[in-house]
Design goal:
The chain is mainly α and 108 residues long. The chain has one domain: Multidrug-efflux Transporter Regulator, Chain: A, Domain 2 (Orthogonal Bundle), CATH 1.10.1660.10. The chain is 56% helix and 6% strand. It has 4 helices and 2 strands. A two-stranded antiparallel sheet has the order 1-2. α3 packs across α4. The longest helix is centred in the C-terminal third of the chain and has 27 residues. It is globular and about 55 Å long. The model has no long low-confidence stretch (mean pLDDT 85). It comes from Candidatus Methylumidiphilus alinenensis.
Amino acid sequence: MQIEQTEGFWLHERYEFSLAELAELSGLPEADLRQWVDEGVLMPTNPQAPQWSFGLDRLVTVQLACRLRKDFELEPHGVALVVTLLERIHALESEVRDLHAKLPRVIR
């Protein structure tokens, strides 16, 4: 996946992409992204909204999903499973770090 940058802009964590912007940045057709939404790989900010938008973190998810699909030749449901499990692992690791930070120094 090659992202050609012709124009610069600042992103912040509250920035949201439209489906068209996400397709343009990722180099994927909107149809692929819609299928990944259907499979649970991508979650729009508000799935019931007439026009989907995606948080900045979903761009990273799309890049990961593209690599998984290419490197392991996964079908959409396989990509969804792996992405879900990886996100769960990251969430659990973050929770463990937070809990570890709350422990008294003597217990560590």
